[in-house]
Structures are given as C-alpha cells and as structure tokens.
Amino acid sequence: MMSSVDKLVAPSATEVEEGSTMDADSATFGEQAARALALDQGLPQLLYELAVRLPAQSEVQALCVWLYEPVHQTIRLHALTAELPAKLKGGIDFPVANSIADWVWKRQQPVTIDTEAETRFPEFARALLETGIRSFCGVPLMIANRQIGVLGLASAKPGAFRRFKLQFMQRSPPESASVRGHPPGLHGPINRDCESAQEPFYLGEQIRPEDKFEKIIGGSASLQAAIGDVKIVAPTDSTVLILGETGTGKELIAHAIHNRSSRRDRPFVRVNCAAIPSGLLESELFGHERGAFTGAIARKTGRFELAHGGTLFLDEIGDIPPELQPKLLRVLQEQEFERLGSTQTMRVNVRVVAATSRDLPQMMANREFRSDLYYRLSVFPVRLPALRERSEDIPLLVRHFVDLCAKRMNKQIERVPQEAIQALLTYPWPGNVRELQNFIERAVILSPGKVLRPPLAELQPGNGPEASARSAAPKAMSLKDAEREHILQALAETNWVVAGQKGAAARLGLQRTTLIYKMQRLGISRAQA
Q1: pTM (predicted TM-score)
Q2: What average pLDDT does range 341-348 have in this prediction?
C-alpha cells in the first residue's frame, strides 16, 4: 500500500539549554527507529520492524498508526501494537475534527501530551489514562513529501517524551542523503530554531510506479480506491459512470478503462455532449442519411458506428437533451438504433463509458434526467475525489507538471520553495487538477532560474484570474440607468431626431409624446449630452 521510507530525520532535543544533549533513552529510541525506517519496505513490514524493536525501549509501551480516509472524512486506526483501551482498537474510525491525529495531520507538527493534565483532547487522554498510559506522542508521517498519516507512541512513564521530539519521517533531498557521524538515514540531532523554515522541495526524484496509474498521478487513499474500482471493472464490458467535479481527470479514467479492457486494440471515440448543439447531437451520435434535413448533402456515420467493437466515451452526459434520452437508452439496452432519416436498424457492439460533473439524482428529482437512463448508465459508478480531498497528492502533481512544462519550454527547474508548497497544499483548488496544471505552467513561464517562482498572490482570496474576470465584467445597473442608456443610444444613432419614421421614437417603438415624457423624467437633453 505504501512505499518504503528511505530516510528518517532523527529525534532532536527541544526546549533544553544550549549545549545540552539528548538523553540516552531518546537517542537509543531514535537509532532503533532509524534502523527500521531505513529499510526498503512497505507499511506493514515497517510497522512490524518498529514493533519488534520498540519492546527493548522501556519508555515505549504501545505504537499505533492513523491514516486519513478522505472519502469518509475520518482518521482510521490502521495498525496497533501492545494493549490500549477498547475505544482505540485497530480498524476504528475517528472523526477528523478535534482529534489529536487531526491536530498532527493538519499542522504536520509533533505533539506530546500528559494524560493526567491534558485539556485539549480530554476524551482521548481519559481513555489512555484508564490503562495506565501517562504520556503520548503524535508524529506526522511523510513519504516523498507526501503526507501518509500519524504515528502514535504511548508510555506509562509521565513526561516520557519531554526530552525529545520526532521530526517528519520522510525522504530527504538527494544532496542531504547522509550526515557524517550518523547511521544511513539518520539526521540529527537538529536544532529546530536553526533549521530553515524555507527548506525547498526538490524535484529531482522520479515519480514512483505505484504513484502512477496510466496517466493518473497520485497515491492518496481516495484516489487509490477509485483506481481499484477501475482495475476491477475494466476487463468487463459493463457500462461505467464516472462521477467527479470538473478537472478531476474523468477522461483519463475513461482511457484507462479502455486500455485495460479486451477492446484496447479497437477505437476509443469521445463525445462531449455539452459541446455539441442539441439540434446536432442526435446526428453526431447516430449519424444521418442524405437529405434527412436541410444541409444533409451526404450520409454521415455516427459516433456509435465509429466506436463499433471499441469504447464510446460520453462526456458530460448530464447535458444530453431530454428528447434524445429515450433513443440513448434504447441503444444502451439493445445495442441498436436507426440513423436520422433512415428506417434501417443498425446493430453495434459498443461499450459505453459516461461521465458527468452534475448531480444526476437531483436532475432526476427535477425531471431533467430520465431515471431509467440513469440506472442503465450507473451499472458501475466510479467517483473521482476532488483535489482538495487528496491534497497529499499535490507535491507529486507539482513534480509531474513542472517536469512536463520545463521540458516543453527548455527550462531546468530543480526545486520549489517550501512556502510555495504550503500555499499549494492549503489552496482549495476549485478547478481541481486542471487548475493546478495551468497554474504550474504559468509558474514555469514566470521562473527565470532553477527555482520555481509561482504567483502565490493569485491563491489569495479575491485575487487570481476569476477575480480579474469579475472586476473586468460590466457592473449591473439599475432599470432606470439602463433605460436612460438605451434612449441615449437611440438618440445618438438618429442624430437626436425624435419624430418621424427614422426618428428615435420609431426606433424605440414609442409614441413621440411618450419618448419626450421619458426624456424629461430622466433628465435627458442634447445640451447635457
């Protein structure tokens, strides 16, 4: 499930006098953890290594790991060693809000608590105290600049974790792969006061195979769940309905389904139902005969025929007009249809993959979308998470898009400032991956050297292209002002002639006396104009 951890940024002494050193127990624990984390292994083996090494440490009685579940907005306790209260057994979901795991996850900072005096997380502390746990430490886990979860350490000794604080467990930049005098993968001790808050995000590391599926980048749990569904349904011929906001990569998922099916060597035909006028969509999908309507000077082959033996991707299926929905339902059920203007029934063998960013159940309630068509399309729904639901994938996507754009522009971008990464992680990305891709391309264009210089001001509320478009748009005016402008325009076009066939009154469709009254009421005169 998870990649191995190459490097451990070691425990460091905190809140101690200058020149003091870590106590022996803290250093010993750091060494044991480093040896476990330096191995090239998956998450289960990693936890096993820690569980084997930790019993030798008298201060650590329990180890647990939380992983974030973005689909359900919960923190799930995935792994646990030693005995803890029944409320904290593995496999239990915890609400994200106001939990200690949520605190560590959002701030990406370690936290220690004394269960006898804790006030921030009273229920959690009370549950630990019931089994004799006096101290608890929560540490953020990161792999390749990607947040993966929270590590929890429990001890029966009060203040057990006061003398050391674990830093992020993550892959380090290439040039800091080792520090003289420490084991491989172990950096420390480090003074946080001297550590630069501007440590850059390095782009040299290649995206791992497990973080890339077809052309889809990401290793978050929510995205991997969707990819898992794709792997299950792709070999079948079942109809698939891809659900997700605009810019989440629905067409990439459709391509992946086609490429992993038995139809991979046959055509993949795409139709955007929102981009084609409703009057032409039937002809586009099913074709037409010569003379079927004005302008039909030749027979046209429809998209269903072109996709025979392959896959037809119906993008934005929620925008298909109601009058065309029964014919689409028929071809989905019977795999047959008639061209526009023809009585001959055509049979095809087509797999349909549909996608939409609209709320189809709500459209059914509003009688805008047929319920039978919806049930026929949603044989196997696949929901794609929004980018804000898988923010841990943003560093991977940044690396991919920077590399892509830099090669195309013949530039060399090696790193991204840490404040830029933090801004990208906290921005909600309403346009999802498409918006991020365009933003990174703009950033590469604006970066003259080897450091990415993204326009972070655009990510602030009230800024950016959307805000510029809103400010450039004409402001709404009152009905009185609109009427005044309309009359002034008519008078200007007629050289201020009011009466007659070519006068302003006739152009506005008003009586001469009515126009004169309106001009007096609105204060319109040629002298003022």
Answers
A1: 0.55
A2: 90
